[in-house]
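Example (one chain per record):
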Amino acid sequence: MKLVPSLTRKIATMIPRLASDYEGEIVATARAIGRVLNGANADWHDVVVAFERGAVAPENVRKKEPRRSKHSDRQSVRSWWELDDDERLEAVDYLIQQKWLSAWERTFIESIADQLHRHDLTDKQIAVVDRLLARAFRGTR
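Predicted structure:
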């Protein structure tokens, strides 16, 4: 199966965590990638094929930020409900890379990343994601 760009971007943002000094984080990351792949009816062999074909450019993924509303000031951040599917993936990928996240927030965002391919989020989950996005773009970390 050929991996779609949004899936390769998602996996590319997770792969650097495999270099952690903590075995538990390495295993958790590998299993999270496995769950993402499984949810897309793919496996690790598909990841290798994607890298061999140059389907992933991690340097582009790392710097990508979620799009902001065109109709508001620079400090305004769109809510989860205003984002399309690709923008939601970008937003979650961006949040995962933030060093200021607490351990709980990081685990939460990683679980959201896994859930995006399987089902909709609850209102409570969306409220937390919106709060984290606001912190990311308003500098209230």
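Caption: Residues 1-63 form one domain.
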